[in-house]
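Entry type: protein chain
Record version: 2
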Amino acid sequence: MSGLLQLQKKYSSKKNVTSAKMFGSEALLVKGQVFMAMMKDNLVLKLDQAGTDMALKIKGADFFDPMKNGKKMKQWISIPLKAVDQKCEAVVAAAYQYVGSLPPKKKK
């Protein structure tokens, strides 16, 4: 089982985690907010500053640029799937903890 599949399985079974589509790709949400998404060839995570600093040490990691127009999103880090391994587990855990600490998203 690949590192990404192991991470998806581990976090999809956690309390308050649901899945949804985001930009046509699979995403995991905690308390209604996305913390992890799979976008084409990348794992995308929402992180606080400490998590961002940790994630940017992973080879190929960068701020997420969904439109590929140079407008990178703060707090969102993209990690190439080929770089996703056991070392990424701490970064995914940081995303889960950070987003889980935010107030639940209000339903529209």
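Comment: The first strand starts at residue 17 and ends at 22.
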